[in-house]
Write a structure and sequence with these properties.
This protein folds into 2 domains: 51 residues, no CATH class; 101 residues, no CATH class. The longest helix is centred in the N-terminal third of the chain and has 18 residues. The protein is mostly helical. It is built from 9 helices and no strands.
């Protein structure tokens, strides 16, 4: 099944991923039930990583940062840049040479990166991950609450 041939499924998935984890999971389970009758392989693929698809939503991050982290564009951009800078090398003398070239190409590719959507809120991601690591937070509640966050830079400057 391709997204071109089934636009209603694509819309349903995108809408579900914008919701909070509990409600989004319920909607995706409904979508899986529907897909099972018409496209069983697509349903199995969606069901396979269902819980993990809402990891970012559970962190309680702002929408802009969630949008930036929810795609694989960051990784694909880096890999594409490394491949573009190393594709003419046809013979690597040894593994260390390949690693050095890959590292150098990654650093060169980094110069062309744009800022991540919501980059000003990355501190919230760090706080969420640190808190989740130390507390072993439940999967239903947001890992970060507004009360547990440090003040924003604007609030610090005003104080």
């Amino acid at each position: 099944m391709s997204w071109d041939t089934c636009p209603e499924s694509c819309k349903a998935l995108r809408a579900a991923w914008k919701l909070e984890a509990k409600e989004g999971l319920a909607r995706l389970r409904t979508q899986i039930d529907w897909l099972t009758r018409t496209h069983p392989k697509a349903a199995a693929s969606l069901a396979e990583g269902l819980e993990e698809t809402f990891t970012i939503n559970r962190l309680g991050l702002p929408q802009a940062l969630r949008k930036g982290l929810a795609t694989t564009n960051l990784i694909e951009s880096l890999l594409s840049g490394v491949e573009g800078r190393t594709h003419r090398v046809t013979h690597w003398k040894h593994g260390e040479m390949a690693l050095r070239w890959a590292a150098a190409a990654a650093l060169e590719t980094e110069r062309n990166f744009r800022k991540l959507l919501g980059y000003r809120d990355l501190w919230m991601l760090k706080a969420a991950l640190d808190e989740g690591q130390s507390a072993g937070a439940s999967s239903d509640a947001p890992i970060v609450s507004k009360e547990s966050l440090p003040p924003l830079d604007e609030e610090r400057e005003a104080a």
